[in-house]
Amino acid sequence: MLIDYQKVNIYQDDVCVLRDVDFHVNEGEFIYIIGKVGSGKSSLLKTTYCELDVDEAAKAEVLGRNLVGLRRKEIPALRREMGIVFQNFQLLHDRTVNGNMQFVLKATGWKDKQERVERIDEVLDAVGMKDKKSKMPHELSGGEQQRVAIARALLNRPKIIVADEPTGNLDPETASNIISLLKGIAAQGTAIVMTTHNIPMLDKFPGTVYRCKDGAFTDVTQDYNKLDLSEESQTGSGEDD
Fold this sequence. Notes:
Elements: E1 3-12, E2 15-25, E3 30-35, H1 41-48, E4 59-62, E5 65-66, H2 75-80, E6 82-85, H3 97-107, H4 113-126, H5 142-154, E7 160-164, H6 172-187, E8 191-195, H7 200-204, E9 208-213, E10 216-219, H8 229-232
Parallel strand pairs: 3-8, 3-9, 6-7, 7-8
Antiparallel strand pairs: 1-2, 1-4, 4-5, 9-10
């Protein structure tokens, strides 16, 4: 099991936003987390890669590591086994697409130059961005930047990708292309966990669905299409939930 949460309490600014979370992720799963702004979706994701601490839990494991009491020096190794797609892309704007990829690989111990070149070409080709290798981030559209962000998340062959609103602020066609890309990645065995406000996408690309609401984290896979779409589709300002 890649993620095993049992009775986890999640805090944001000393406020408990989710209580008694039971959350389990296995290889190749495609998981949506939905809910209104401020319901705890982003906070939950942040606990998986230790941007937020887990202090209260019966069990909180990610990739075999116990998050409760995990030492700071152990966090980089955990993150190297994960792919993280941030809401605002977080590309380095002072270097090209290739430069962004090189930075990550060098930082995570890829010493052989040819191996780096081959891996970069492989992931950029997978997301249809190989021909944009020499472009700067500001020369790319929002959808293209998101594809680069996904390629970056794939570099270290992660077992799991967590993505915070990967279709936020994208037009419907581009959003559909991004989700289709992520579904293809999941089909190859990498688990995908993503937050979204794009409820209609759940019908087009089915997966396991959890809802954050009133401090509760609930599996609503069987009835998510019966939810009040006007409530669940409320969009925010892009700030963390």
